Amino acid sequence: MKNNLIAAAELDRLDTWAKYTADMCHSCMSSCCTLPVEVRLGDLIRIGVVDEFERSEPPKNIAKRLQKEGLVERFHQKSGTFTITRMSNNDCYYLDRKTRLCTIYEKRPDTCRNHPKIGPRPGYCAYKPKS
Q1: How far apart are CA 9 and CA 102, in angstroms?
Q2: How far apart are CA 111 and CA 37, in angstroms?
Q3: What domain of life (predicted)?
Q4: Which candidate among 21, 68, 109, 112 keeps its CA 20 to 30 Å from the CA of 120?
Q5: Is residue 6's pLDDT more than 70?
Q6: Which of helix, strand or coil describes residue 79?
Q7: pLDDT tens-place string over residues 43-94
């Protein structure tokens, strides 16, 4: 079988994603941090944008507040997931533009903690090398 190694993945073309290895993160432009990040209420509490006492409020009300504050793009009522806002260049709201590192790494959502075990192509990553 022919090896189709591609230096930089295209986010929308899963066939260009590289098989994940732990050392990739140190030389990547944080391309995974440009994907939409879906989180649950527990993640928002851990991040510190929702207080524990708000847990009893309807998630729709929490979503409305977070959307007004610019922290959440949308709320999926059926699944109970919130999508974290991305910047105009598609970077996650919590990604530092200069260092390309997560500003909330210790509190990061479960989606981020489990990437790339879960996601659009489990076991693969949209690797883009640093220039």
Answers
A1: 20
A2: 7
A3: Bacteria
A4: 68
A5: no
A6: coil
A7: 999 999 999 999 999 999 999 999 999 999 999 999 999 999 999 999 999 9
The dihedral built from the CA positions of residue 45, 74, 110 and 79, taken in this order, carries a sign that is positive
Spell out the domain ranges in the chain: 8-34+91-131, 37-85
Give the up-direction half-sphere exposure of residue 41: CA atoms within 13 A in the CB hemisphere. Answer: 16
Q: Hey, what amino acid is at 94?
A: Y
Return the HEC string of 10-36.
CCCCHHHCEECCHHHHHHECCHHHHCC
Show Cβ contacts of residue 107 under 8 Å, excluding neighbours closer than 6 positions: 46, 47, 48
- Residue whose token pair is 């533009």: 97
Rounded mean pLDDT, 27-39: 92
The token duo for 68 is 């007004």
CA distances from 120 to 10, 15, 81 (A): 13, 11, 16
Residue 107: its pLDDT value, please? 97
Of 14, 25, 10, the C-alpha closest to 115 is: 25
Tell me, what's the pLDDT at 7?
64
